[in-house]
Fold:
Amino acid sequence: MSLRSTGRALPTLVRIGLAEAVAYRGEMLVWMLSTTMPLVMLALFSAVARDGPIGGFGQADLAAYFLATFVVRQFTSAWAAWEINYEVRTGSLAMRLLRPLSPVACWAVENLAAMPLRLVVVIPVAAIALVTVGATPFAHGWGNAALFVLSLAGAWLLTFLVHVAIGTLSLWLEQSLKVLDVWFAGYLVLSGYLVPVAFFPPALRETMRWLPFRYQIGLPVEILLGEHGRAETLSLLGVQFAWIAVAAIATAAIWRRGLRRFAAYGG
Structure:
């Protein structure tokens, strides 16, 4: 399938994805509310920080961090692994493969089309963040804002590619969601989602620098809050996009081998 045909189909795919997101808005809202763990961690850490800063984070710093984490989480999530597992299990993947569009491109658009609906939750939380801690923690110039948007796009792409790779493993496994559970456990602990990276010992922080989890959510939050200088930010972005390249190569290989297996068994 050519990029030209994908480009022609893109507006239709976006409309369909948005219509599905609106049709299942109740389910989508429940899913978004299930990602409120940063707000729970904010309450816990704020209670402890009443007696003094934790790891250099006062109560205002913690509020800025966890509110930013909640917002970033909404824009870096993907659920392709669940879709692929479902379609493999029900056989509907075979019908999708008959269409003249790449299933991976379709899953990407379907995931991205839900972004406008997430603004319904994100905008009030962002407003609360500005009222609670002010704009100062987030105001670091247009250059930093551009790097934040780049890191946000990179975080979503990395997460999506991981989901496609793990979802495609369902062509070998009865279900590959257990693999996703293991990945998600690493994500919770090592990404900065539940605990800021700055709270970890230096040796572990250095290890986390070279693992992919931090680049799924922690890096955009850190850039938004201006935690790094320009040189350090660019270095971390380089690592993030290196992981994206690795994930893209691995995902493409797993997808091609998986399709051959699917065809061999009459999928």
In short: The longest helix spans residues 230-264.
